[in-house]
DNA sequence: AATGTAAAGTAACATAGGTTACATAACAGA
DNA sequence: TCTGTTATGTAACCTATGTTACTTTACATT
């Protein structure tokens, strides 16, 4: 664990803070596809991603969901951040996209370090900034792109965070993530295949020209 | 100016910080409908809203735009915040929805106060949190609502920030704000009128049952 | 009052995306 | 190999939204 911490956060934080992180942080290993945080969960600690990727999604009252963005190594969850500050419920769901290793930082320390360590303060603010940018990209995607473009972007993004040009997913799962129906996805996927952008197989899709 | 500052921010900040705000903050009065910040502008100061409301919008490469949310008294712009930190270009456009009074805080002070004043640090983090919530609401709206629902929400939100049940706007302007076409808006407005939710007039709309 | 202009109304049509219903293919396990 | 199950393919249809084209209305200016 301390190697991953050193490797991914070492250049950000000073010695003393890294030591504290190791002391108070709780190491957690999570299997792919399990839910890490759900909507309306109370948040009491903030996760630093040591390895793997996390899918962040939003769900409306009718249970329709939508993928917003992914967290990767070196990221933290800004919603968690602000939930920690304000004792508020989570407004998003976080699901392990791959196997994930986390370092959980207790709420109390998080706030304490903001005053104590300049580098921590910068990290937190930078994280907020990054998450705002992800949100803008998410808005752009759903507001300005047509479904076939969204689909292709989705496939490329997913390939990216999984470090593989083959993604394990069914058409139904894609439809859930993009908040549309399976038939629509099958139709558009077939179109992408005809354009030689992807190869379709049962339970997996290969992205060509990455 | 100092009355507005005291009134809207007095309960947030300690005496000393309020004094500094008055000393270094530059008072700015902006007419309704003028652009305060545009996409790709470099940001060198951060605005505290003293009075009025600001419309925050996003535009894609083809020039299609979309309203994201409004800033009101007591708010600050989180994008500006993070742009200030990182010397980055703005990704959003800010347009005065009403006449607006601002207190512009230079970038340098902003960062300095983060370490110096606990209350400033809390304000900045709270602002980020508020803006994240606005983004989530924006995503919900465009992803999960149909156009007639979005339109009705738009009208109510606009009435809210303008403190008036009559809003001065043409169908074309609404279409631009919602990233759709004028004909669609006229059609849906007519529908809302038939449901007795609004009254249509040339250049203005009255919202009933607020 | 006559006229010009921008706003709003509306019909007719085009298209993307959602829905239903069913057929076929891939794979797992007996 | 046979069989059941899940994934995928696909046609036919439906609906919301976008587009084009034109008319009518409100209002300001002369």
SSE layout and pairing:
The structure is a homodimer of 210-residue chains.
Chain A: H1 2-9, H2 15-24, E1 26-30, E2 35-37, E3 45-51, E4 54-59, E5 65-71, H3 78-86, E6 93-96, E7 100-106, H4 107-116, H5 118-144, H6 147-161, E8 166-168, H7 171-178, H8 182-194, E9 198-201, E10 204-207
Antiparallel strand pairs in A: 1-7, 2-6, 3-7, 4-5, 4-6, 8-10, 9-10
Helix pairs in contact in A: 4-5, 6-8, 7-8
Chain A binds a DNA duplex (30 and 30 nucleotides) through helix 8.
What's the number of helices of chain A?
A: 8
Classify the oligomer. homodimer
What CATH calls the topology of the largest domain in chain A is Jelly Rolls
Alpha carbon gyration radius of chain A = 18 Å
Strand content range of chain A: 15-25%
Name the biggest interface: A-B, 36 and 36 residues
Query: What is the CATH architecture term of the largest domain in chain A?
Result: Sandwich
- SSE order of chain A: HHEEEEEHEEHHHEHHEE
Quick one: biggest sheet of chain A? 4 strands, antiparallel
Helical/strand content category of chain A: alpha+beta
Low-confidence stretches of chain A: none
Count of domains of chain A: 2
Helix content of chain A: 40-55%
Describe the structure.
The structure is a homodimer of 210-residue chains. Chain A is α+β, with helices and mostly antiparallel strands. Chain A has two domains: 2-143, Jelly Rolls, CATH 2.60.120.10; 146-207, Orthogonal Bundle (Arc Repressor Mutant, subunit A). The first copy, chain A, has eight helices and ten strands. In chain A, the strands form three sheets. A four-stranded antiparallel sheet of chain A has the order 2-6-4-5. Chain A has a three-stranded antiparallel sheet with strand order 1-7-3. In chain A, helix 4 (107-116) crosses helix 5 and helix 7 (171-178) packs across helix 8. The first copy, chain A, is elongated, with a radius of gyration of 18 Å. Chains A and B meet through helix 3 and helix 5 of A and helix 3 and helix 5 of B. Chain A binds a DNA duplex (30 and 30 nucleotides) through residues 146-148, 170-172, 180-184, 186-190, 200-203.
